Amino acid sequence: MPFTSGPKSTSELLTELEPVVAAELDRHLSTAKEWFPHQYVPWSRGRDFDGPLDGEPWSPEDSTVSPAAREALIVNLLTEDNLPGYHREISTIFGRDGAWGTWVDRWTAEENRHGIVIRDYLTVTRAVDPVALERARMTHMQSGYQADHGDKMLHGLAYVSFQELATRVSHRNTGKASGDPVCERLLARVAADENLHMLFYRNLLAAAFELSPDETMRAVTDVVTNFQMPGHTIDGFLRKSAAIANAGIYDLRVHLDDVLSPVLRQWRVFELEGLGAEGDKARQELSDFLERLETTATRFTERRAERRARAADAPADERSRSSAH
What we know:
mainly alpha; 12 helices
């Protein structure tokens, strides 16, 4: 598609992008593999809990996953739990008709499997306190979900392009950190879905760059410079995200190198021609932000390495007290 001049309305963009949505939907359906959550859960590890069935109450000793992986699993699941809110937001932005509506419903159906399989795994393996998890789910879902970008369509496309990849990376790294091959296999399966979702949105936004380059560049810059994961409203999110970052599961270095940079490189944002003054301004803002983020990410990883080195050199009894906190 050739570049066109002048801003486009949301309705114009939705109409002009619909053929791309249809083509990407066909590609997705031909690529996606059917899978069944129940096949990834180690049911033989399960036993009754306390309550009506008079089983055994959960105890921290029941969990075999690392504390950081446990936090990541909780954050990942609570994020997946808010699917009704995400569905409402994207159906509002993209509409419920034609190829857009078909995609929204297909995406929602696929995403629903993720919460099912992760919760079943956590419950059966007693990886987390099920009472605390259910209370956290109730609190989180009752707080609702509202997209930071509101109903801005290009901002929505830009956000999910990065967010789907961020979720994929988080799931994969959580699986590796869990120490449980079953958990790693399960989360790799979930991550494969997230990758296909990312490809759909990334390719769609690439088409938007051709239709409305200045507005798309502004949307990308706004999203990157103010990016938050959809689970940032989870109770205790800052504490949990700090533990996840300190474990290297998802930190600024991962965010920059494994999420932002690959997508921006695919769109060739810094080689893109045909931008107007507003597009150039947005691109410069993006470049400046990425430079600052590089500095911050480097500083974080250096300080983490220093902390780990000090911990390794500390006496055994001091390391034990430190890990207890």
